[in-house]
Design goal:
The chain is of the alpha/beta class and 461 residues long. Helix content is 16%, strand content 34%. The protein has a single domain, classed as Single-stranded right-handed beta-helix, Pectin lyase-like (Pectate Lyase C-like, 3 Solenoid), CATH 2.160.20.10. The protein has six helices and 37 strands. The chain has a 23-stranded parallel β-sheet that branches. Strands 3-6-8-10-12-15-18-21-24-27-30-33 form a twelve-stranded parallel β-sheet. It has a two-stranded antiparallel ribbon with strand order 36-37. It is elongated.
Length: 461
């Protein structure tokens, strides 16, 4: 892991996370592209229930007054090929019980969607959208509710050719619950949309599970973000709460479980952050609290830039990571207290559940790992442990002294939302052992040769 390369990759990645302006609003589709249901919708009085029997209906739908459009037996609405399949331009609309086949109708720059909403108080429930540029698009659509919505893109399609599963722009007090997204560019894109809730939603095989900026006071609970470039990338926002979420197997050169860029006042508790290239990444973010999270089997548990301040990690568990902390810069005021570290080996002689001496989170081998990528081969071998122990006993290098004053001997109660994960015993790496042995042999040969050369020089003298 090379900080310069990592920094460059992540800066380039963040540079792509720019604010996305809304496209021009789509209007009523021409008669030739309209659904056969359009006439009945137009005739229905405000507040009416329009029940749609089973079947396939090709053509787009435009709703410009409050009503409920409800499918019986999951009818399918098929795009005409012109643009968004269902267009909502009136408040108080409910859409429930449909499959929507968008067939990539329209274009990205027109925000063509399975359902495009530009009105408040809309409910979308039990809907499945396939092959849309955007699944559900909210534009200035306050108080929207989306329940049990599935959005599926096309596997293998380049991210730049698809939009988000849920795209929320300037839409306050939203609710996304019990939904799922796969194979889109981003799972959920949220911009300038505050005081909302995302709960019980599963997102996989996308670029960013959650792509988020300029939105405050939102709650994320019991969600699942897996197998993407980033589980969640959060920027320029305040007072967010992440509780009991799972960030799993987000891997790649610049991948991360949870990224914070210029975020303040976030609370992350009881989350599982497991098997990511980097578990947590903090840059320019301040006064955030992390507690009872489980960060495990990642290359780097934490990446923290010198630009952060006032962040607190308390009662978390860091288990089986190649390195617990990678610092970018020469300072940090981050507080670590009462966490469990699987690599800590200080005793607990008084039996109070805490190790007797502060645990130094950054050791000399991590210092070398951050500069030499090949050193990962030795990270679990005896050479790494010997080097770290020697540096603790006879410190000769100037490193940033980052410690956990009260590191725990066992998992904190309720860590990771009560996940049952027993720290595995350290496994001896065959490669690590072989390389370590080779280095010891090379070192011994060098010593003996040096001694032999010294004797010959003394004889010659």
């Amino acid at each position: 892991m090379i900080p310069a390369a990592l920094s460059l990759a992540l800066v380039m990645q963040v540079a792509t996370m720019t604010a996305t302006p809304a496209g021009r609003l789509e209007g009523r589709p021409p008669a030739a592209s309209a659904s056969p249901l359009q006439a009945e919708i137009d005739r229905a009085p405000s507040g009416a229930l329009v029940a749609v029997p089973p079947g396939r209906y090709t053509g787009d739908i435009y709703i410009d007054h409050p009503l409920s459009l409800v499918g019986a037996g999951r009818p399918t609405i098929v795009a005409s090929g012109l643009g968004s399949v269902i267009i909502v331009r009136a408040p108080g609309v409910r859409i429930e019980g449909f499959d929507i086949e968008a067939n990539f109708a329209g274009s990205l720059d027109r925000d063509s969607s399975g359902i495009h909403v530009a009105a408040p108080h809309v409910v979308i429930r039990d809907v499945r959208v396939t092959h849309a540029f955007f699944g559900i698009y909210l534009l200035a659509a306050d108080d929207a509710t989306m329940e049990r919505v599935s959005v599926h893109g096309l596997a293998g399609k380049p991210p730049g050719e698809q939009g988000s599963g849920f795209h929320l722009y300037n839409s306050q007090q939203f609710h996304v619950t019990d939904s799922d997204v796969t194979d889109m560019r981003d799972g959920i894109y949220i911009q300038s949309s505050s005081r909302g809730v995302v709960r019980g939603t599963d997102i996989r095989h996308v670029r960013y599970g959650l792509h988020y900026m300029y939105a405050d006071d939102n709650l994320f609970e019991d969600n699942h973000f897996e197998d993407s470039a980033a589980g969640a990338a959060l920027m320029f926002s305040q007072r967010l709460v992440f509780r009991r979420n799972q960030f799993l197997r987000n891997r790649g050169f610049a991948s991360v479980g949870l990224l914070l860029k210029d975020c303040t006042g976030l609370l992350a508790e009881d989350n599982l952050i497991i098997d990511n290239a980097r578990g947590l990444f903090l840059d320019g973010s301040s006064n955030n609290t992390f507690r009872r999270n489980l960060v495990a089997v990642s290359d780097a548990a934490l990446v923290i830039y010198a630009s952060v301040s006032g962040n607190v990690f308390r009662d978390n568990a860091f288990v089986g990571n190649l390195t617990p902390l990678e610092l970018v810069g020469r300072r940090t005021d981050t507080i670590f207290d009462g966490n469990y570290w699987s690599d800590a080996d200080e005793p607990d002689l008084d039996g109070d559940g805490f190790r007797d001496r502060p645990y130094r989170i950054v050791n000399v081998f991590d210092h070398f790992r951050s500069r030499t990528i090949a050193s990962d081969l030795l990270s679990r071998g005896p050479a790494a442990r010997a080097l770290a122990a020697a540096e603790r006993t006879f410190p000769v290098m100037s490193m940033i002294n980052v410690t956990d004053a009260h590191s725990r001997v066992t998992f904190p109660d309720g860590v990771g939302g009560g996940a049952l994960l027993t720290p595995a015993p350290r496994q001896r790496s065959t490669i690590g052992l072989l390389v370590s042995l080779a280095l010891l042999i090379v070192g011994a040969l060098a010593v003996f040769r040096g001694r032999g050369a010294g004797k010959e020089m003394r004889k010659a003298a």
